[in-house]
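User: Short-chain dehydrogenase, Streptomyces varsoviensis:
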Amino acid sequence: MTSTPPPTTEAAEFDASTAFADCAESGEFAGKTALVTGAARGIGKETVTLLHTRGARVVALDARPEVALLAEELPGVVTMTGDVTAEETASRAVGAAVDAFGGLDILVNNAGRTLNKPVTQTTAQDWDSVMDVNARGAFLFAREAFRAMEGRGGGAIVSTGSYASTVGLPEGAAYSASKGALAQLTKVLALEGGPLGIRANLVAAGVVETDFLGTFRPDSRAYLASFAHVHPLGRVAQPREIAEVLCFLASPRSAFVTGAILPADGGFTAA
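Assistant: Predicted structure for Short-chain dehydrogenase:
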């Protein structure tokens, strides 16, 4: 896909602390239990916070030990560490939700890995490591969630995808393929889950300003700035903005939405 970037303009500074000031901190998730992967920081942490604030009982999982800090910041949140690519981790995490809170109603597949390499420089190990987290991990958690939700009468599975689910990104062979796989998995989950009352949707996020970028690019600040002007909104996203969309798709407000690939990319894929 080719597109002509819009004229460069000075975008208004986005302030998440005030932009969402009037959002109702309702109890829309009261009585619901949620499991969030990749929960220690960025989009995952914001999602845990929103779910907890709005009444959910939350199990937060991450490979990083710092996820334990969420239990101190958000009393009642159960934290766990583990590798999302391991079957044992998925089984243990869903089991923790059932044991601690009696069941599972919401799964947020947020854990992810990226890679920025030309095809010729992408090794088989690179490919496997990205596909394992982004596709295999999401599958394992969705499978275990299905088993728990089926006996509960339904639930919602929401995954953090990317605009790379639908368009190709240079130097993103493994990442784009993994997010494309996640989008197709979401559609299958929706088809199989419908009769069971289980909805499945994906948020195709654009570039988000998190420290996640720093894990693969030393020039992450400059990289972010380079993307701002190709978004019609003139900026990249804040983690809270993506978390809000994830929570919408997990909530009763989207009760008739399933199998959707919902762009939250500042208009990047509109052209």
